[in-house]
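Quick entry, no commentary yet.
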Amino acid sequence: MGYRYAAEHPSQAADLLISANKSVLTNTKLVQESEALLAKDYYKGTDGSIGTQSAERWQAFADFEYKAGLLVDANGKKLTSAPKASTYFTNAYLPDAK
C-alpha cells in the first residue's frame, strides 16, 4: 500500500516522510526530488506493477557493491565474487504475485 501511494502521490509521500523525520531531515528539496524520481523510475516495474523487484536491478547493485569492495563475509573478509542477488529477494508475497 505504501509503495502504491508513493508512486501515485510522490509529493504527498515526500511531505509525510519529511513530517515524520523533522529532527533529522534538513534538505527537504532533496527529499521531494528523490521521491519524484523514485515514483517515476523505481516504485513501478516495467509492466506497471508496484513494488516488484527484478533480478537484473538487484544484480547490478550487488555487482556495484562488490566492485567497490563493500561486501564482506561473516568474518569480515572481502568477498571473492559478487553474490547471486536473485537468491536474496522474492516477489512471491506481493498481492498480485503469480
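second:
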Amino acid sequence: MILRLNTDIAAGALGLVFGALLWFPKGDIGRLSIIFPRAILLILALISIALVVKGFIKPSGRQIEITGSPRRLLTVMIGFFVWWGVVEILGFLLTTLIAFFALTWYLSRVETAVTWQRMLKWTPIIVALVGIFYLTFTEVLNVRLPSGIFF
C-alpha cells in the first residue's frame, strides 16, 4: 500500500495523540515518580507541535510505502492495546509472556506453518527477553511493574 501524505503533520499529530493518552497515569504513581515521565511527555508534545507547525508552513508531501499486510499490521496494533489493557489484571510477567508467544506465532506463520516443536525452541528466548525486561525495569530502573492476580 502506497500513501502520499505530509509526514510532518502525520508524525506531529500521532505524537500529540500518543502524549495525550499517556498523560494520565493508570495507577497509583507518586508525585516524584511521575516527574520524569511527564517531562518526557512535555518534550514529546513540544516536538510534535513543532512538526505540525512545520508541516503547515513548509509542507512536504512524501510517498510512504507500507509493505506487508495492512490486516497484519492492524492485528498487531490491536494486540498491543489488548496487552496494555490486560497487564493490570494478569500482571506484567504473565501478560507479556502470553503476548510475546502470540506475537511470535502470529508473525511466524506468515512464512510457514508453526509447529509446537518450533514454538518450544523459541521458549527460552522469549522467557529470557521478558525476564530481561522485567529485571531491567524492576532492578536497574527501580520501576514497579503491574502485578496482577497471579504475580
